[in-house]
Amino acid sequence: MTAVAEKLMLPEPRGPAGRLSDFFWKHPHVLLTVLLAPPLLWLGVVYIGSLFALLLQSFFSIDDFSGLINYEFTFATYRQLLSETNLDIILRTVSMAATVTVASALIAFPIAYYAARYAQGKWKVLFYLGVMLPLWSSYLVKIYAWKLILAKEGILTWLFEKLHLLWLLDAWLSLPVVGGNSLSVSYTGTFIVFVYVWMPFMILPIQAALERVPTNLIEASSDLGGTPAQTFRHVLFPLALPGIVAGSIFTFSLTLGDYIIPQIIGSSRLFIGQAVYAQQGTAGNIPLAAAFTVVPIVIMGAYLWMAKRMGAFDAL
Amino acid sequence: MTAVLFDNVSRHFGAVRAVDGVNLEIAEGEFFAMLGPSGSGKTTCLRLMAGFEQPTGGHIEIFGETAEGVPPYRRSVNTVFQDYALFPHLSILDNVAYGLMVKGVGREERRRAAEDALAMVKLPGYGSRRPGQLSGGQRQRVALARALVNKPKVLLLDEPLGALDLKLREQMQEELKILQKSLGITFVFVTHDQGEALSMADRIAVFNDGRIQQLGSPEEVYKQPKTRFVADFVGSSNVLPAKLCQRLGVTSSFASLRPEAIVLSAPGDGALSLSGTVSAHSFLGAVTRVVVDVDGSRISVATPASLVVPKVGSPVTISFAADELHPMEDA
Amino acid sequence: MRSDRLNRSPLGLKIAAAAGLAFMHVPILLIFLYAFTTEEKSYQFPPPGLTTQWLAVAWNRPDVWAALTLSVKVASIATTVALVLGTLCAAAVSQTRFFGRETISLLVILPIALPGIITGIALRSAFSMAEIPFSFWTIVLGHATFCIVVVYNNAVARFRRISGSLIEASMDLGADGFQTFRYIILPNIGTALLAGGMLAFALSFDEVIVTTFTAGQQSTLPIWMLEELIRPRQRPVTNVVAMIVVLVTFLPILGAYYLTRDGDQIAGAGK
């Protein structure tokens, strides 16, 4: 036996790192605080702080003569927000967001369904990348691509001409509301680009929801005599709905706040995003711009609450 | 010397008393089993020894030193985890050498030690593989080598054989026992399989509801269950209710009686007997299990398969030596 | 395996899915065609001729280089900040159970869930209230804020896959907290962090909405493109830049995919 008694526990932590490690082990809450402090300071203080400061400004008003902000609590700005022109902007934006969402769901569903149910192995990977690459491609480049396509001298006009369908395009453009001088300055153009840019966000949530539907449910339905249409309506669609709602959170919210697409491709009538941009920029009316931002926040808040009740968050 | 000492140890999670006033003393070099159903507190006791949990009450000593407040990485105690917990990004050799590496042992020395440890668990030459390339039984051996290479004072094993198939399990039981005897390390073994505990351990602690129901040698626990729970959980002893106990002259309210201790015949000298009717029997290979209905209590009897078994419904007398009847504490 | 015939997809579905995918990809492919057109003044289709001269023209444009350099710098620093903050957050949320982890998740996702214009204008008015002049750092601050979520999502998914017993096993074998982090946690979350970082880089590199509010006079590559979109002055150069942007953003996406393909998927919701 050696003279030194063999100790079971190591007597002393080795070095400052060892001591610090022991300290964190004994006080896990200190470690948690150390971990959380930087991100919480950044997001909780800087970001949330900025948001609150912005919302606060919506309760101030702008002095019509001097153009300076009057720091007194008032609902005047909100009264201004509810003027007819502004309500018009809100209504236009919300209906556009709703239409874009519906169209996105219609286009996304077959892709998601095919990827979830039929694509296997290599094809599955190809589908996944085929969705991810356009989804992550540059937003501006995507808009730019449509500027090329929708231009009067662009590919779409050329295509219609080759198919001898120019009369159809002209007839569509001569319609009120959706028409215009050319597709690139019409609501139809704005709508197409919105759908193009935001639709990919719809595919993955729907696919995730569909992948959770066991195949035998569909077989059970057809086994019980359901036609494909009935199976779709009564089995598949209800089960995919949470995915659709989850996807619609993106398409709806992103359309609601966008100001670049309608500015580049669309008519001169404003959307919420453009109004916010114009109010804070050229008009210098920060309170009204702030009040305008409350609209998408409130709409999305209500939307998220509804989506949560439908169980859409499980499909995210 | 006492390897592990629990003095009235409790671990409560809010209102849940996972471990509730446990006293035990594990001797150095002992193969100790903690047996019980899931949620009985046996695994929490193991985690208290390893240092993953801290007691909310009581005192723990490991080789005479206070264990409370000592982090797991400062204990000369190593664990074989239920899911083996091999590091997926490291080779088998690096897995086994991990403990030595973090303690600052030189590269060459720890490689040699790890290879020796792998040879000891009969996996020589497997060092360059990855955990994902091994079978369940092989991973189990690696987990064992990874713990033993550190020469722990106490080795903790958390249901290490649970994921193995029957044949492999029996083989590993044998090997573990031999390994433990040759190394002389204290093994503390958690299991819910009573057969495993009985065949491997020097002593068994039977757990239920966070408490130790009985602590003793396998034979004691099996033959003389102290409580009804132990009788039910360990082996398949019959539990005789108060009514029958009274008739047999036992004062306690319950008594246990093992099926193998009963014969289907008239009593000999000094034997006790009961009469009833045969209500079922099933052939189990070496023995036939006969269920006898005695005044509404079903008593099972294990009789050699070579004997003729009475028909279902026929009256029968069962008898047994008086000292086979063990009075028990309340339910 | 079930017979393929039973599992064959209906023709209508096949066509709809193929058409949907074509709708997603054809416009991007057109960008590649237009980068080589000889037409300078309009978006004429089909192009009257093809040329590679615009590549050289774009190469020699100092304003494009300046914008590209700024974008890469901003994206690098924003990604670094997001990596640190996102990993800290993910570690705190996954390794400990504490009150309010749902709130943390919501807080991280908020900058991306709210329309970019709200984040942008909120930061802008906060800068002006705090009298912080617009600079390189105000752009970085905005970008890092919405990049955290991408790193966080990737890291949280991977943390969830490291079984708790792995960390316990490491400590059991004598590794203290720092050693466990270095030898066990970091190697296991490394690829997820790399993937998250790549996506964060792609996100920052492409961002325009928040940037318009936090950039002041400087122009990142997307800002440069936006100006070209609103007032086209040099269409051929824009065509080439658009093509290069597509190519540059594809690389991190493919890289991130290959790093995370076994198991957790890239958080597609992160944009």
UniProtKB/TrEMBL annotation, chain A:
Any one Gene Ontology cellular component term annotated for this protein = plasma membrane
Q: Which UniProt keywords apply?
A: Cell membrane, Membrane, Transmembrane, Transmembrane helix, Transport
InterPro entries, sorted: MetI-like, MetI-like_sf
Q: What Gene Ontology biological process does one annotation of this record name?
A: transmembrane transport
> Does the record carry Transmembrane as a key word?
yes
Major subcellular location class: membrane
Highest taxon of the lineage: Bacteria
Membrane-spanning regions, if any?
30-56, 89-113, 125-145, 191-210, 239-261, 282-306
The record's Pfam families line, in alphabetical order, gives:
BPD_transp_1
Reply yes or no: does the keyword Calcium apply.
no
Where the record annotates domain ABC transmembrane type-1, the positions are 90-307
Family stated for the protein in its record:
Belongs to the binding-protein-dependent transport system permease family. CysTW subfamily.
Report what the protein is called: Spermidine/putrescine ABC transporter permease
Originating organism: Ensifer adhaerens (Sinorhizobium morelense)
UniProtKB/TrEMBL annotation, chain C:
Q: Could you name the Gene Ontology cellular component terms for this entry?
A: plasma membrane
This protein's source sits in the domain of life called Bacteria
Chief place where the protein resides: membrane
Q: Could you tell me the membrane topology recorded for this protein?
A: Multi-pass membrane protein
Where is the ABC transmembrane type-1 domain positioned along the sequence? 68-256
| One Pfam assignment | BPD_transp_1
Report the locations given in the UniProt record.
Answer: Cell membrane
In terms of InterPro entries, this protein maps to: Bact_Polyamine_Transport, MetI-like, MetI-like_sf
| Positions of transmembrane segments | 12-36, 64-92, 104-123, 135-159, 180-202, 238-259
PANTHER family, per the entry: PUTRESCINE TRANSPORT SYSTEM PERMEASE PROTEIN POTI (PTHR43848)
Q: Which family does it belong to?
A: Belongs to the binding-protein-dependent transport system permease family. CysTW subfamily.
Q: What is this protein called?
A: Spermidine/putrescine ABC transporter permease
Question: Which species is the source of this protein?
Answer: Ensifer adhaerens (Sinorhizobium morelense)
Organism taxonomic ancestry: Bacteria, Pseudomonadati, Pseudomonadota, Alphaproteobacteria, Hyphomicrobiales
